[in-house]
Amino acid sequence: MSKTRIAVIVGGVVSLILVAITAWLTFSRMGKASEVRSSLDTARRQLASYYDRNPFPSEDNIGIEKVNLEKLRERYEYLLEQISTNAVSIKDEHSPGGFVTLCEETVQKLRNKAPKGEKDAPIAGADFYFGFDKYDRSKEGGGVLPDKGDVPRLVRQLKMMEMLINRLYESKVLKLEHFAREEFEAEDAAGSSSDTSRQIRRRKGSTRSSSGEGFAFSLDLDPLTQGDVPMVRESFSLVFNSKEAALFDFLNRIGGMWPYAQIAGVKIRKTGDDVVLLAEEKTAKAQTTEDPFKPTVKVPPKPRTSRLISGSLRESPVRVALQINIYTFEEPVTDDVGDGDFESGYSDQGW
Description:
This protein is an alpha+beta fold. Helix content is 40%, strand content 14%. Strands 2-4-8-5 form a four-stranded antiparallel β-sheet.
């Protein structure tokens, strides 16, 4: 066989093998392409079914959500209505001079109604001015008129002070030593020479009441952080002497106040001995210490029953310092209401 014939045969065999391989690859890829095309068609039909569905929520859900939204609005309006009762608003407009007169009348009323405390003396002394000493026109040199813009807040503080003092009286404490408020207007009223800050001269005795000032809480507070509903905080500091029952009664009354009051600080200090001796034992003890060089007969100790270890006679008064913060919602809420928004708003409730 010639070399040319052999070459032709080998070339033909190689060509047939290449054609067979190509055909096999083609048919196998076509099968996979068919599977991929089928999967793609299935995914496209599934996606089309999602697009063709009715939008969420359904008509039934829309009706249910409308009812729930109406209930939520009613609850929100009720909440704002309750919050509005916490406001201490001023019905009548007061001038600076009118405030000073109102302050004098309120202070005198509280002095007159002060119950008896230690040694059958009134809880609040005749010269006590309940934290408004700056506006006491009876002190030496006269008082000052507040700035007109400060009068509404001063009147609110005056009413809050009256609420606290009335609860203190009802608790039957023994003595009120100190009462202070947050003096926001100090810089305006103390040194101003304007017409609304001029001094009123009426020379009488000084009426400063600060016997418990060193024991009292300082009212240098950080600014109040505001939330969605405008809120106002007024802080007060007081020092008084009381027995345990009266102290807890006053704390309970403050806890039940409306507007909301918070006990922000408490300091308690004892004022008497831990053990109280009867009069006979005190006399015997004094006799044994009159003259250390004089021979005396040693007095035997009294039995335990002769010492006051419980009961009202045993209980010594304590000195108490409190810081009380009163929170009110003074400003009405007014928001623009759109589709799906809540309509909110309330008006202040006057006293």
